[in-house]
Design brief:
Pfam families: Laa1_Sip1_HTR5 (PF20210). InterPro entries: Laa1/Sip1/HEATR5-like_HEAT, SWEETIE. The chain is mostly helical and 72 residues long. The chain has one domain. The chain contains four helices and no strands.
């Protein structure tokens, strides 16, 4: 994954995080993509990926007041 991909993933999560699934009432749309999203995030957070990917994802943590991203 590249920094542009981290930015795109962040934008997708921001836009669709609370979107309901039209076919499954009471569930969120992104639930059906959970495995793919977790895989992408794990790749971006891998120690061998380098600090540039971590830097690309930090603005999202600051916007959401994420304790993990601001505590490191």
């Amino acid at each position: 994954m590249r920094p542009i991909g981290v930015g795109l993933l962040t934008a997708i999560l921001d836009k669709f995080e609370k979107s309901p699934d039209p076919e499954l009432p009471g569930h969120l749309l992104l639930e059906q993509y959970q495995a793919q999203l977790v895989s992408a995030v794990r790749t971006a957070l891998d120690a061998s990926s380098g600090p540039i990917l971590l830097e690309a994802g930090l603005p999202a943590g600051y916007q959401d007041n994420d304790q993990w991203s601001t505590g490191r």
